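As agreed, record minuted below.
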Amino acid sequence: MSELKTQKLNVLTLPLTGIQLIEASAGTGKTWTLAALYVRLILGHGWSGESLMPPQILVMTFTEAATAELRDRIRERLAQAAQFFRGQPHLADDFLQDLQANLGTDLNVQHAERLEQAAQWMDEAAIYTIHSWSSRMLRQHAFDSQSLFDQKRLDDAPALKLKLVKNYWREYVYPLEVKQLGALKDLGGTPEALLKNIQSLWQKFEKSPGSFPEASQDPDPKALVLAWSDWQDRVLQLEAQARQLLLNNMPHALDQLNKALENDLNRNHYRVNKHAYFLRHLSDWASGEEADMDALSKFTFEKLKAGLRGGANPIDNAHGVWTAIGQWMAERQSEPEVGVHLLHHAALKVGRAYLQQKRSLASFDFSDLLQRLHAALHAPSSRLPQIVRAQFPVAMVDEFQDTDPWQYESLSRIYGAANVPSQDAENADHAVKIEQDHASAFLMIGDPKQAIYSFRGADLPTYLNARHAAQSIWTLTENFRSSQAVVNAVNHLFETADKPFGEVPFEPVQTPTPAKAESLRLANGQKLPALTVWHLATDKPLSGKQYSEDMAQICATQMVSLLNQGIAQPGDMAVLVRDGQEAKKIRQALAQRGVRSVYLSDRESVYASREALDLACILEAVLQARNAKLLRAALTTRTLCLSLPEIEQVFRAEEAWDIWVERFNAWHATWQGQGFLPMLYKIVHEQDIGRRMQAEGDTAERRLTNLLHLGELLQSASLQLQGESALLRFLTDQLADPQAQGESAQMRLETDAELVQVITFHKAKGLQYPLVFLPFVSNFREDKDDSLRSAEERLQEDIRLLYVAFTRAQQALWAGVAKRQGDFKSKETQAQSALSVLLQRKSADDLPEKLQAWAVCDDIEVIQAPEANAQLFEPSSAVKRPKRMRSCSSLPVLST
């Protein structure tokens, strides 16, 4: 733990020098703080170096969307400050008034002009994602980074990786004998399977500097396969000996065994209905039949002795038959663990070949950007740190909790964290001396309680290293998002937990002023609690499926009740879920009650949709309308929306069939004459597909959005292709690999209407909603065996996900809890769900007791989960929206 104490941040007095860490909590105004610091830097307030303008102030975050938002927000703040210094006091907040008081009023005009100039220069501002900044530095400083000037992005990295895996397969797998192939079972049966299996190892090797092993440490695949072959030979030899021994003593051995089964052996392990099968299989196995290992494992001498009833006669070893079977079984259990080592060898060998190929092709992929910049900055006698530091005297990194070791060590090398790991003594000396050159500042802004992106490479230990290296640690403690009641409830959840975020302390927050909005009230006038916990009490723990289904129905019922009471409109409500399966359950439950919703986290490719497959069928028929088979397939697609009687009429009546043939021919003529998209629009309008979809159910908007999205994508692709057949082949290729087109093919939102918003915890980060529902917070999902995280790391990230979920609400939230199967595997194990850890549960039966620790808070109500019903939503124009907490014009705009 850093010896530095945290201090409450005053944005006006924060030192703009050295390494400063600002720790925020959800809703405390990180982006507002960053924009305020930007204003100070432009005006030189607290800055000891030369005056700065936007191209000299490096601001980094982790997504393109976030950089665009930061650019707009900073521009807006600069313009607002300029107007204030021009003499428009109505635009002032406390920060601008205090800043003017510090600077004095003599230079108001000059300050306004400088702020206006900075606002106009924001298109050139150094606001980047970490990857785009790395790429820019490698290009701009090609000599000092020892990078090639002419480098290109690798177009098809997966294809190159597969090619190299196939080379490995030819070198190491083809020469093996058939009997040795069993050693490769963990590699997979094909090169494609091997590539999939080594991907996670590559991620592990590339996670941080120095984690890729040297070639001298590589496993020896030939020795590993030979060891496995020797073991297999011993197993086969012992099996043959046991078979022969049983065959030689068959009558005696089986007769004695039959008597033991009837009279002496425990029938719980040697069930009566299996006796005949046991005897028959032993005989068949001795004669050469394939072994039933579960059955034969019961007939080792040790198992037979252990299975004797009390007072039974000693078991007859039948001339050593049962001992021989036991020796064979024991040898089978001692199989050398060669699979893991062989996978490591394949990952290392192919990984190095991939690096070499990229160098030969003068190409790079996404991960190379960070690694190459890191290497360039840490090269002996490198001038690059001083050059970059002179170019950007100040760096502000937003969402710093999501950084990884490559990013942190690169920035620390530039801005001088004295205790950052260095690759040589010269680098270590440089890290200390760099502070003596000229003014610089490295400002890290983040909330480690929201570090939920380990799948992107985010590494919380790296954040903790940065925390230890900081000269000061500052905290934002005023929540501008939520009512005081919601803040009190969330504070209580995490203050009563036992160090929920490990080394990172939980600092309770407050609203800056008493809540201005009245508490929401039910139709009977009863005040609505800030947090309502629905406890679904059951005798036995629920399966994940049962819990999710029950809670979805309960949650949907209560949402309909709130809507029908006039407390809110659907657009005020958000349901937060872990994944698409949970989203599907709550959306189905809402749809059953007439409540429309939209899923905001759908990352599926539109090429994986039913509409894409239907469109391929339709296009085949358009190209070959005289092909009866293709035309029938097209007419029966869901997208054309023909009813069964209509289809039957077309298939039975020659006249109706001819009409459809001519219709498809006409569409083909439109495609040839005007292009693909006009043809698709013609199909949609002529067949009235929108109305037909609407009549078929509540998925009409989703289906029509997918269809029109496909039309745009295919129209764009057609500009690069020759002819209609080429476009159809393109579509067929996308159906085979839907993810190949990346973000452009991700499903779009089907509507802009104010519907209930269903969104994942991850996607909800940075967002806020008046009313938030968390129906599935007792759910958890253990990592697979090949995960790069430990069970404890998974649990800690799940706790941080819960923190994100509980801090999205402005006025009220609801959570559904229950006992879950697998949460407590035994009396000694720790709870597996983040919610149980927060509650400090110790057993599968203590949930009601532990929930009382939450119920003592005046702003939390723990109740028995209400009964679900089928009441429908009755829309009314008189429904009142929940009051927003404060005017956005007078408060920081939040992004955390």
User: Anything to note?
Assistant: The longest helix spans residues 221-248. The chain has 35 helices and 16 strands.
